[in-house]
């Protein structure tokens, strides 16, 4: 007998590998964990409607036995609506979560997919999984209308399936049994959903982006701090200063045009006054550290300075960093001086490459010389620097990748991170590679920016073996560069971070990258202690 669903209950689930998708890679040992901010905003929006919605979230990424917990959670909560947001490598986990939910709760459950992967490949979600509706843009207003039971054909910004011509060939018990035996999510889900008729998919008009009369995001409610137990998200001292920590978003979108990125170009911001009230709200809920995740916090330098100035006026001083980094050509000395006084202790920047042709091939619109100026400016204010670099860009060769390694050694940030340029489905780079016949695989869990697995054919013929070689070469040459070891060692003694850095080296450097021949250690590198896609707090 099916469980009766609670019409006002809305649940959100985070996939099990949300924080460990990069296990076995250079950045694995120092991955941060944190509540999922998009769910906090969706929950806050539903509560703002004052229609009696009850929300809860299961973060499978921080549970010890996530798949065993899932079934009990669903049967206890009995939601009418279930939201699943995921990135490309997590699609198969999201698919299995949906199948388990549909089997336990029945066809009346409304399963909603969101996020950049589902937005780009909504046809996949609606034909290959048990998803009912995909939100293709910004989620708050759209998801709110779905949960109010508004007819799908009257809701902007979705794609939905009219028919119910799908069935799953595995029930919840069978899925969990196979996973318990060690089967991969990819193998379990393969062919597990079939259609007995031609699917009828309907796409509605795109929904305009959220903005008030002043084209700002100030109409958004503050994130729902009751959705998660924030004290579950404890990070080791090598990656966090404050506990608990909270992601903070003060703008959405990005006006720049990097072809490897999926950021929307509709750049909108929260006003400085709103941001200060948000900070006060988070502090009142016990938050001890902010992790700014804006795609580009300093797109509008004047606004960035206004926020820093308002923090000083309000007496707000809390550890914070700019997790997604800033553009090297947008850094401003006046901002840095004020930011340092408010508690900003780490800034990442996307330098990407030391080769101008490589930079141009990803449409970065950045001159290499700007990176040198940016690095010197940040160091001047004693703020930790994180350098983001990229190899296997469309124009890269072995020579240009070595040039990037040498450039990173020249800049010498406190911490450096390199990623492989992967064409994700929601990017213009993917569209270009697919048009040229360069996409070799659509096995989504292989789309990993820290592994060269061969999901595409590189335009210049770089093989996965060669790319992987330069990936590790970057870390070895950067972190075991004698100049860096000497500089970082002295700096750690001066600023009191030497214990943390020794701990970091013990957990990350020696275990993973020390060569078999100790005589060669001086040319070897340690992996960057940063979480995939974001700079990290390392004290």
From TrEMBL:
Name recorded for this polypeptide: Radical SAM core domain-containing protein
Superkingdom: Bacteria
Matches recorded under PROSITE patterns: RADICAL_SAM
InterPro entries: BchE-like, Elp3/MiaA/NifB-like_rSAM, Methyltransferase_Class_B, rSAM, rSAM_horseshoe, rSAM_sf
GO cellular component entries: cytosol
Necessary cofactors: [4Fe-4S] cluster
Transmembrane listed as a keyword: no
UniProt xrefs under SUPFAM superfamilies: Radical SAM enzymes
Phylogenetic lineage: Bacteria, Candidatus Azamiibacteriota
GO molecular function: 4 iron, 4 sulfur cluster binding; catalytic activity; metal ion binding
Species annotation: Candidatus Azambacteria bacterium RIFCSPHIGHO2_01_FULL_40_24
Keywords of this entry: Iron, Iron-sulfur, Metal-binding, Methyltransferase, S-adenosyl-L-methionine, Transferase
Radical SAM core domain sequence ranges: 240-460
PANTHER family hit by this protein: ANAEROBIC MAGNESIUM-PROTOPORPHYRIN IX MONOMETHYL ESTER CYCLASE-RELATED, BLL1977 PROTEIN
Gene3D superfamilies the UniProt entry points to: Cobalamin-binding domain (3.40.50.280), tm_1862 like domain (3.80.30.20)
A Pfam cross-reference name: Radical_SAM
């Amino acid at each position: 007998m099916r469980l009766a669903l609670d019409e006002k209950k809305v649940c959100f689930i985070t996939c099990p590998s949300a924080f460990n998708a990069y296990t076995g890679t250079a950045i694995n040992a120092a991955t941060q964990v944190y509540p999922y901010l998009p769910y906090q905003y969706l929950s806050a929006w539903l509560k703002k409607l004052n229609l009696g919605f009850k929300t809860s979230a299961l973060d499978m990424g921080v549970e010890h036995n996530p798949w065993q917990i899932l079934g009990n959670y669903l049967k206890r909560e009995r939601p009418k609506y279930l939201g699943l947001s995921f990135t490309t490598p997590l699609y198969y986990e999201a698919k299995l979560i949906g199948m388990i939910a549909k089997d336990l709760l029945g066809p009346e459950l409304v399963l909603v997919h969101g996020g950049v992967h589902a937005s780009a490949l909504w046809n996949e979600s609606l034909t290959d999984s048990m998803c009912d509706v995909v939100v293709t843009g910004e989620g708050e207003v759209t998801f709110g209308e779905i949960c109010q039971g508004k007819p799908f054909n009257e809701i902007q910004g979705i794609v939905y399936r009219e028919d119910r011509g799908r069935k799953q060939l595995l029930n919840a018990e069978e899925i969990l049994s196979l996973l318990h035996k060690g089967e991969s999510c990819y193998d379990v889900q393969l062919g597990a959903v079939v259609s007995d008729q031609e699917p009828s998919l309907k796409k509605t008009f795109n929904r305009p982006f959220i903005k008030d009369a002043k084209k700002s995001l100030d109409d958004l409610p503050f994130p729902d701090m009751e959705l998660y137990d924030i004290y579950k998200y404890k990070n080791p001292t090598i990656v966090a200063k404050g506990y608990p920590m909270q992601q903070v978003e003060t703008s959405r979108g990005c006006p720049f045009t990097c072809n490897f990125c999926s950021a929307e170009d509709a750049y909108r911001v929260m006003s400085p006054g709103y941001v200060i009230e948000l900070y006060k709200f988070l502090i009142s809920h016990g938050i001890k550290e902010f992790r700014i995740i804006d795609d580009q916090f300093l797109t509008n330098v004047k606004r960035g300075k206004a926020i820093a100035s308002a923090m000083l006026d309000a007496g707000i001083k809390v550890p914070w960093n700019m997790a997604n980094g800033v553009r090297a050509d947008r850094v401003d000395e006046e901002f840095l001086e004020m930011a340092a006084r408010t508690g900003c202790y780490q800034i990442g920047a996307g330098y990407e490459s030391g080769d101008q042709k490589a930079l141009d091939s990803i449409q970065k619109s950045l001159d290499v010389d700007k990176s040198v100026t940016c690095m010197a400016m940040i160091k001047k204010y004693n703020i930790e620097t994180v350098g983001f670099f990229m190899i296997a860009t469309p124009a890269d060769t072995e020579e240009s990748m070595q040039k990037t390694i040498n450039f990173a050694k020249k800049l010498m940030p406190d911490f450096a991170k390199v990623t492989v340029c992967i064409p994700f489905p929601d990017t213009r780079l993917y569209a270009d590679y697919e048009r040229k016949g360069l996409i070799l695989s659509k096995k989504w869990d292989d789309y990993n920016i820290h592994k060269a697995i061969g999901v595409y054919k590189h335009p210049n013929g770089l093989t996965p073996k060669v790319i992987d070689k330069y990936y590790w070469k970057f870390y070895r040459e950067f972190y075991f560069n004698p100049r860096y070891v000497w500089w970082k060692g002295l700096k750690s003694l001066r600023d009191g971070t030497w214990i943390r850095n020794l701990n970091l080296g013990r957990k990350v450097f020696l275990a993973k990258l020390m060569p078999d021949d100790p005589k060669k250690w001086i040319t070897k590198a340690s992996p960057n202690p940063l979480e995939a896609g974001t700079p990290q707090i390392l004290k």
